[in-house]
Structure formats: C-alpha cells, structure tokens
Amino acid sequence: MTALFAFDPASLMTLALLVWIFSGIACGLLAGAARLSSLISGAGSMLACAAVMIAAVQMLNGSAPAILTLPALPYHASFSPVNALLLLAMSVTAFFSSLYACAWLANARPHQRARTGLSGNLLLAALTAAAISANAVELILMMEIAALCAYFLIVQADDVKSRRAGQNQFLSGRIGTLCLILAFALLHHASGSLDFEVLRHTTFTPGTKSLAFLLALAGFGLYAGIIPLHAWVPQSHSSAPAHIAALFSSALMKIGIIGIVKIGLDLLGAPPLWWGLLVLLLAMLTAFIGGLYALMEHDIRRLLAYHSLENVGIILLGIGGAMVGVALHQPLLASLALLAGLFHLFNHGLFKTALFLGAGEIEMQTGIKDMEKLGGIARVMPWTAVAMLIALMSMAALPPLNGFASEWLLYQSLFQLSASQVFIARLLGPLLAVGLALTGALALMCIAKVFGVTFSGAPRSQAAAEATPAPRAMTISSVLLALLCVISGVASPWIIPYFAAVAASVLNQPVLQAAGHGAAFSTTSAVSVPMIAILLLGMPLLPWIIAMVLRGSRLPDRSRGDAWACGYGHSAEMVVTATGFAQPLRVMFAPLYRLRQQMTPAPLVAALHRSGLGTFCRRLALIELAVLLVVAFA
Amino acid sequence: MNTSFLLADPLWPLALLQAMALLALAPLFAGFSRVMRARMHNRQGPGVLQEYRDIAKLLTRQSVAPAAAGVAFRSMPYLLTGGLLAIATALPVVTLASPIGAAGDLIAVIYLFAIVRFVFAIAGLDTGSTFTGIGASREAVLGVLVEPILLLGLWIAALIAGSTSLGAIAARVLHWPLSSSLTLVLAGLACAFATYIEMGKLPFDMAEAEQELQEGPLTEYSGAALGVLKIGISLKQLVVLQLFLGLFFPFGLAEQLTPLALLTAALLCLVKLLIALFLVALIENSVARLRFLKTSRTTWAGFGLAFLALVSWLVAG
C-alpha cells in the first residue's frame, strides 16, 4: 500500500479525486459567496488537473501496466500508457476549462453556480476514475455517474430546448450503459471475471467475441457519438455551459473512443477483418455527415458539436485502420494508424476546447449564440479572435498546426491500407482518403464561415457592436490552448514518438519509428511541419518587400466608407449571411440534407418529448445518481 | 526505409530561386494569356509586358478599403502570395526530386492550397460587401468540388509510384510503367481537369466572375494591395499548372545536378508552360461560364475520370 502523500501516480490520482469532490461540495455549500466559491471550485479543479497531468506523465514514462488500489479509496486502478494518454488529453483541456470556469462561475447566479461547480467537478472526477478503471464494473459505474452529472449540467437552463437535450442525453446514456452491461455480462459468462487483466488473457469463441464487440461498440459508440448514435450530441453541447460543453467533447466522448480501442484491440485479442471494416465505415460516415451538417448550423456551439462528431470519425478512422492492420498482419499499418488516431484524439481535445471556450466568451459578452447576429467581434475581442482563428485552422487540418500533423499521419496509414494486397483494403483505402479530403474541404468552408461571419465584417446587431473583452482568465485560457495547438503542431516531430510508444503498448509491438530529423515520416513519405511553418512565415515577406520597394510617393492606406454596391446605397441586409454562404452546398447536397428529416422517426420523437417523461427522467436521474454515488463511495 | 535523404540535402537555394523565378514570370505568363485572348478575338491587344506595367502602376497607388474591412482584408494579398510561394519551393520545376523533400508531399501541398483558399475566402467575408461575400462562398464551394478529384487522381498516381512524395511520383512517371499506362493516363486526365478548375479560367471562373460578381473577393481591392493580389493570382495559375506538369510531364527534368541538365530543364519547363497555357487559352476562349449551381454536374465528370483510374488500378494491380 502506497502512502497517501507521495509523489507517485497512485497518490497523485487519489489527491486529484479527493480535491475534485471536496472542492465541488465546498462550491455547492458556499454558493452565496460568489468569488470565494468560484475560486474554490475552479482553483481546486485546476490543482486536481495538474496532479493528474503529473501522474499521467509519470505513467507514460513508466514501464509495465500496474494494477493497484488507490490509497485511501477502495478503487482498483490500472496504470497503462493508453490510460495515461487519455488522462493527459482530458486533464490538459480540463485545466484550461477550470481556469475559464473560475471567471464564469463568479458571474453566474448562485443556484447555477452551486449546481455547475458541484456537478462539473464530479463529472471530472468520475471521468478520471473511469479512465483508470481496472475492471468493467468500475468503468461502467463511473461512466454512468459522469453521464448523469452531464445530464444535470445540460438541463439547468430549464427551457424547452435544454430539457429536450437533457432527455436525449439521458436516454442515449442509459441505452449505452445497457449495451455495455450486456457486453460485459456476456464476457463474464464466458470467462468468469470482469477484470480487464483476466479478460485480456482469456480466449473467447468467435461468436461470443463478435456479439460482445457489437454490443460494446454500440455502447461506447453512444458515448462517443458515432453517427447514427449521435442524437444527444449537438443540442447538449449547446445547452450546457461552454466549459462543460468543452469537457463533453474533450473528455466524455473520448472515454467512448478509448473504450472502442480497449474492446477492439486490447481485451478480445486479435480482431477479425470485418470489425475493422465496420469501424472504418462508421468512422467515414460520422466524419462526412458531421462535417456536412456542421455547415448548415448557425448556433456556433451546435456547429462545433457537429465538428466534434467529424473529429470522432477521423479518430476512429485511425482506430479502424489499426484493427484492419492487425487482422491483415500488417504491423506497420496498425502502428501508424493507431498512432495517428491517438495523436488526433489528443489534438482534438486541444483545439475543440479552445473553440468552445472562445464561443463561451462571445456568448457571455454578447448574450448571442447565433452567429448570424454577430460580426466584427475581432475588433472588440482581438485575443479571443486570434485564439479562435488558430483553433479553427487546426480543426480544418491546415499546416503547420496540430490537426494537420495528425491527419497527415492518418493519410499515410490510409495510403498503406491502399497499398495492401487484400482487395477490400485496396478498394477502401483510396475511397476513405477521398472521403477524408472531402471532409477537409467541408471543414475549410465551415471555418471560413465561422470566422468570416462571426469575427470579420461589420456587426449585425446592437449587442455585437457593444461587446467588451471577456474577463482576463477566460481570454487567457483560450489563448493558451491555441498556443498549445501551435506547439503540438510545429513540434510534432518531437511529440510523435511518445504517441508511438502508447500505440506500441496497445498493440504489443515494437515502437514504430515515425519521426526524427525534425520531420514526421512513414515508410512512404515524409513531411516536416517545422519547415512548412518557416516557409509559411517567411514567404509572405517577399511580396511585402516588393510592395515596399516600389512604394514611390504612395499615400498611406485608407479605410472609410461603405462597401461598394453597384452605386446603390449600402445597407447591412445586403451582406452575405452564414446561411447565404453555405447555400450552394445546401442545393448540391440536398438529398443528404433531406436524409435528416427522413431518418428521424417523428412519432417516436413526439412520444419521447412529452412533458411527463421529462419530469420522470429528471427524478429518475436524481435517484440514480444518489444511489450510484453511495455505491461508489461504499 | 531510410527517410533521411529527404532532409539531409535540401536544395534551399534552388527552392527559393525557383519560387522567385515563378513569381517573376507570373505576370509574363498572364500577359501571354491576354495576348492569346486578344488574338483569338481578332484584336490587336496590349503587349506581353502589359501586366508588369499595370502592376508597377498599381504598386505606387494608395489602397482604399471600406470601413468594415480589417486585418484579414489587409493581409490577404501577402498571405495568398506567400502561401503560393511556399508551394512553389516544393514543386519539381527543374529537378526531378522536390528541392525540399520534407515539404514536397502531396498531402502537404493539397493542404497548403487549402490555406490559400482560406485566406482568399475570409478576406472576401471581411469587407461587408455583397459581391465579395458571394465570391468567397463560391471559392469555398469550388474547393469542395475539386478536392476529391485532385486527391483521388494524385492518390492513384502515388499508389503506382509507391510513395506520396512529389519527387517519387515524378520519377515513376518519367520511367513510364507500361503495365499501368491506362491508369496513369486516366489519373493524369482527372488531375488535368482539376488543375483547369483551380486555375480559375472560364467556364470555372466562378469566384471572380467579372460580369456577375464584379471580380468577387477582389472587388474592394485597390492600389498596392490589388497590385500584389494580381501577382498572386497569376502566380496561383502558374503554380497549379506547374504542379500538374511537374508530376505528369516530368520529361526533361534534371535527375543529376549538372549545369547543362538544369539549363535544359529550365528551358523545357518554360516551353511546357507555354504550350499548356496555349491549350488553356484555347479552351477558355471557346466556352461560356457555367451556371454556378450546375457546376457540380460538370465536376462529376472529373470525379468519374478519377474513379475510372481507381478501377483500372484495381484491375491492373
């Protein structure tokens, strides 16, 4: 038994969990004192995140996976590199979300503060505990607690939209849990144990394996938001407070993804080919439809939520590629694809959190979520604009940012998939690459829309014109995350080896050499992100110098008056809106957009959203959360 | 595989030189296109050097912008030109291998083009003008339509070469694999189609359509900014064309770095560009603009070509 206050992962994790729980409770009790309670909750959470970060780095550097009981808590923890990676991805983003929360909670109503502070910290504690769980009972219990906390965070605005969002999330979460319970019950029936360590070394019959895999894929897929299991995602990201929405994307959905890695690559032994192909197809569907639907959204947070789906798809492309690689006995493909997926998982957390926090800042200063009514925000909130621009560019995988670094690796693994000897892989590889490129082009259009309509041009409403910069803590949190995006992109050749080590530990293979000499490479090509960064920074100087040399007697640049409108008077209504910007694609992809209406079963939706059920869900959630918390502490 | 060769000996001076040479030549080729257009209209037209004179004049004039325009609008001409110069350093222009191996990867190049498109689009949205906004929207939509064609075409060529680096593809096409002839021809045709769209010539000059959109995102530019932008747009046409020519017509590119080989390659490169521009001018002056919302029907043809390349690659192996 390790000591409680030592500097090893187990003690640090215990410390983090306790700090989260107690600071959350303290925030709930002291909700009347605005500054004190928000400081306790936010700073406590930051402290806990820092502890988890240190623990995760120690685990990444450490060797074999270890199972031990956390000191002072009756909890079995498994410390493996992939768990550590998940912890790192969650705690880095949660750290900045907590910094943002300090300022947000101080400006919230007392009731809201108590609820957000308590459930937010509890959510983080549960997710962290789920990330290091050593058996299925713990995993499911903690995921369930996290999902219930998320429910209470979603429904707090108490309007029709958030009630509906909460109900969707509540039902999805319960179905997801049910699928997971069935999956692990099946495995328990076959092996007699629920410990991951035992399951890992048990051989199952193919039938059991496949059934358990499908059930677990559905269960984890509901948490991760794989399309068509994504019903809870868009609206819940819009209804919860911004920093909590960031956590949904960067932590809650990631638990689902890592769950798929665990079940598909780790616990059940070598996956058959069709598992990988199934994951690849679902991944492509999720990425493409997510990107396509994002384009039509006006609510900036719903739009970002759809992009989270797109990124979940991109991450799963890597994971599916790894499963296919294992099934086809192509270790290089498997390592590269898993490396790309895990690296993108980490990067997505960084840029998506920056985006949600930035969107939250705008919402707080203007009270507007609809970007049609914004415009010209870059003038009043320049730092937020810069942070959002960088994060948006990362999201569209533009070099030299981190999204590009991970997507490049993914393209390379798809290239290896295409070059495989198996027909289905040769067929799917190029098509998936085209799908990814198409998704990238849609994302590019979408970020141009978000940045152009929200931050540039003239303000479209009084509130947007009168906005002021957000509190400093908020701005700093999003700017620092944007900075991390730049660093993790430009310095990717030095970061990739760590992810390669994690991928190798999941696959039980030697570490893939995928970076060196300042470049990332696969067996087929290489790219040096730092070099591209230098080129992109240096090259614009050349035309600038030419313009300066030929300056002559030119007058200084001038900005005034309205835009030209063919001689008519300019009016604000003439300017292209977000809807108008995306209109051509609505026409060109009309059948795919109609799909949404056609595939939604209207009678079912109407039945689900009757008011009686909402109240029932709410009471049920409260009772369930109370019971589960008692179970967890016992 | 030992990939250090991609980084060990980057030909920095050559990379920068070829980028600068393309920048310097861009207005000349734009002027050549103008002359071709005038001749096909049975007009006399201004001389080949007219573009240089226009740009020199614009660069000494004041830039005027609407009040709503911000940093994105101001910096776009430089960022656009700079992004294209970054691509130009990585292309096989006179050498068979890309002078900067570690940037000369086809995925990297496609995403660098995406940056160029992005700055173009947000500058269009930054002015608060109707025409620039619609131009920005059209530019982004064209990206969605073209990217799959370009990527699939290049991907198939890369599969035949066994590598996604530009140099490897060029080298493979140079030593033409007879068994994959049909595949390469189809992939080349698909890429030619995509290249033509990317050059922004009729019938695909959607974003800058003069009559409907008053030159789209360019509408509000004036003076020095417009001058730089004019260089940038003619550079874009040259870079896109050279990417295609470098990959699918690498004949005559220098394999060894001898002065004679480099000189021949440089001359051949100019000749190839002139011939290609002549063909482009022939098409451009014999068609009318497409209706924008119907463009997707035409681009399906390009994707069809790329898909046929995929099928023939699957069959031929």
UniProtKB/TrEMBL annotation, chain A:
Location within or outside the cell: Cell membrane; Membrane
Membrane topology, record value: Multi-pass membrane protein
Pfam families, sorted: Proton_antipo_M (PF00361)
A GO CC annotation given for this chain: plasma membrane
Listed transmembrane segments: 12-34, 46-64, 84-106, 118-134, 140-158, 170-191, 211-232, 244-261, 273-296, 308-328, 334-359, 380-403, 423-451, 479-507, 527-550
Keywords, in A-Z order: Cell membrane, Membrane, Oxidoreductase, Transmembrane, Transmembrane helix
Single GO biological process annotation from the record: ATP synthesis coupled electron transport
MF terms in GO: NADH dehydrogenase (ubiquinone) activity; oxidoreductase activity
InterPro entries reported for this sequence: ComplexI-like_HydComp (IPR052175), NADH_UbQ_OxRdtase (IPR003918), ND/Mrp_TM (IPR001750)
Annotated ranges, domain NADH:quinone oxidoreductase/Mrp antiporter transmembrane: 135-425
Subunit structure, interactors included: Composed of 13 different subunits. Subunits NuoA, H, J, K, L, M, N constitute the membrane sector of the complex.
Function of the molecule: NDH-1 shuttles electrons from NADH, via FMN and iron-sulfur (Fe-S) centers, to quinones in the respiratory chain. Couples the redox reaction to proton translocation (for every two electrons transferred, four hydrogen ions are translocated across the cytoplasmic membrane), and thus conserves the redox energy in a proton gradient.
Protein's name in the database: Proton-conducting membrane transporter
UniProtKB/TrEMBL annotation, chain B:
Keyword set, alphabetical order: Membrane, Transmembrane, Transmembrane helix
Protein name: Hydrogenase 3 membrane subunit
TM region(s), chain numbering: 12-33, 106-128, 140-162, 174-197, 238-254, 260-283, 295-316
Record's keyword annotation contains Transmembrane: yes
UniProt xrefs under Pfam families: NADHdh
Listed GO CC annotations: plasma membrane
Annotated membrane topology: Multi-pass membrane protein
Superkingdom of source: Bacteria
InterPro entries noted in UniProt: ComplexI_Subunit1 (IPR052561), NADH_UbQ_OxRdtase_su1/FPO (IPR001694), NADH_UbQ_OxRdtase_su1_CS (IPR018086)
Location of the protein in the cell: Membrane
Organism: Erwinia sorbitola
